[in-house]
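Researcher: Watch the backbone:
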Amino acid sequence: MPEVEIYGTDQCEDTQETREHLQQLGVPYRYINIEQDPNALEWVKRQNDGEQKTPTVKLPDLVLSVPSNAQLDTAMKAKRITRGD
């Protein structure tokens, strides 16, 4: 099971940018489309004070809301998350 989970929507440019960034880095992740999963949508809202913010990225013991690529890279480095090779 990947250590990174991305909660977002197919239409969200930020979500797609985050997914592409992780793919380019070779980091495995699980994508959860909150438009197709009501429980995931509720989880995202709980993490963001009732707001739907995408992407919301879940790492071990850390949740990031709409992180920049640099913020995500820093968090993954701190959590020792690397390529899936």
In short: The first helix runs from residue 13 to 25. Helices lie at 13-25, 38-47, 69-78.
